[in-house]
Design brief:
The chain is an alpha/beta fold and 397 residues long. It has helices at residues 30-34, 48-62, 78-90, 103-106, 111-117, 141-150, 171-179, 198-205, 245-255, 268-271, 275-284, 291-303, 308-352, 390-394; strands at 14-16, 19-20, 42-43, 66-69, 96-100, 119-127, 154-161, 185-190.
Length: 397
């Protein structure tokens, strides 16, 4: 919408890294390959008590209530997660967790356990309905996606385009299956053999790696770096969704626990007496009463010209939000909505001219001696130049 969100302290989630690697060991996964491959991983925190301790410290230092859990398959380690839940309950912590987890890992838990654990966002690999990856075995991912949304858990689905069984004849059905999950966000990534992975070794052995590909361009969002079995062209037409639609879907899912379900009963989370869970949903929904309510007004008007069906769905959600949050929400929508609509259209014209956003560069240095040049481990410094200490050289500086 062309406007910067406030960056006040506590708004951004703190990052916690409980483990690296993933025992699922999908053949394309770089992190799994880097940290030992299939069946292996490395825990930094083995217990829920350890995790609770470091999260409490971050809460105190950074004034946060939400945590991005940077772990390839956080929910796979159920004993640790449930132990963490026990400490969260004892400490009355209404934290929100944003996690990566596979479908079969999520299926170890009841929806109640996930909600009480504070799972607010899930990144889940959907890949393909015909893929044989262990993480998807026995999982009805469409049903699971619906259940997560029903309980206010936002879902980012990930689908791979260009798997070995994909052909020009079946690719459209595969994409339709992905879209049918109705996720809040969805990423489509090209099947990509990255150096170090089993997939790369296999493609390299078969002589199917394409020559002259810059390593910096091997990221799954541009072109194939290998010859596909079905001889797809290197590049696909870009699959573009409406830029505003994911934000609408996120607000819809966030708002669901506050609304009656299709049977006229409150969503399951609202029936729970746990004040800790209620506090979390109230904190997450705080923006719905003002800024996002106005954003819904702008989205509805802007998309009316290009997608009437989506515009009507946004209107229905905006009306629900207005009823739920009262007069203030409706007043803010009417006052700020037109300003946001004007800004959206201005931003659309700006981007159409080819202007882009570039993130601010951040440089952090550790054990840095500004007076001395960098001496790589094993190299001899020039006479009279100290360079790095032996300890710094052995640790990479």
């Amino acid at each position: 919408m062309g406007m910067n969100l406030p960056q006040d302290k506590g708004r951004t989630a703190a990052t916690i890294i409980p483990s690296v690697g993933c025992p699922m060991g999908c053949n394309f996964c770089t992190t799994s390959a880097f940290f030992g491959g299939k069946g292996k991983f490395l825990n930094f925190y083995n217990t829920g008590e350890e995790l609770f301790g470091v999260m409490s410290e971050m809460e105190s230092k950074l004034n946060v209530k939400s945590f991005f859990v940077m772990d390839e398959n956080f929910l796979l380690h159920k004993r640790r997660a449930m132990e963490l839940l026990g400490f969260m309950k004892a400490g009355q912590k209404p934290w929100s967790l944003y996690v990566f987890s596979s479908a079969n890992a999520i299926n170890q838990y009841t929806m109640r356990e996930l909600v009480e654990l504070g799972v607010s966002w899930v990144w889940m690999g959907l890949e393909s309905p015909h893929s044989q990856y262990t993480k998807l075995q026995g999982a009805d991912t469409r049903k699971l996606a619906a259940q997560l949304r029903q309980h206010g858990i936002k879902l980012l689905g990930s689908t791979i385009v260009g798997l070995e069984h994909h052909t020009p004849q079946n690719i459209e059905a595969e994409l339709e299956h992905a879209v049918a999950h109705n996720t809040d966000f969805h990423q489509f990534m090209l099947y990509t053999p990255v150096p170090g992975t089993p997939l790369y070794a296999e493609m390299n052995e078969q002589g199917r790696m394409l020559p002259g590909i810059d390593l910096a361009d091997i990221h799954g969002q541009d072109k194939f770096n290998f010859q596909h079995a079905a001889h797809f062209a290197r590049g696909f037409e870009t699959l573009v969704g409406l830029g505003l639609s994911p934000r609408f879907r996120t607000q819809r899912t966030q708002h669901l626990p506050h609304l009656p379900d299709h049977d006229g009963r409150l969503a399951a989370v609202q029936e729970r007496p746990d004040p800790r869970v209620r506090a979390r949903f109230q904190w997450e929904a705080r923006s719905l009463r003002d800024g996002y309510a106005a954003a819904l007004w702008a989205m509805e008007k802007h998309l009316r010209r290009t997608n009437e069906a989506v515009s009507q769905r946004i209107r229905a959600l905006r009306k629900d939000v207005g009823r739920e949050f009262g007069l203030l929400s409706r007043v803010v929508s009417g006052a700020i909505g037109p300003v946001l609509l004007w800004n959206v259209r201005r931003e659309e014209r700006r981007l159409a001219r080819g202007e882009t956003y570039e993130p601010r560069t951040i440089i952090e240095r550790r054990n840095w001696d500004w007076a001395a040049p960098l001496i790589l481990p094993g190299a001899s410094p020039a006479p009279g130049v100290a360079g790095l200490t032996a300890q710094e050289q052995s640790s990479g500086g």
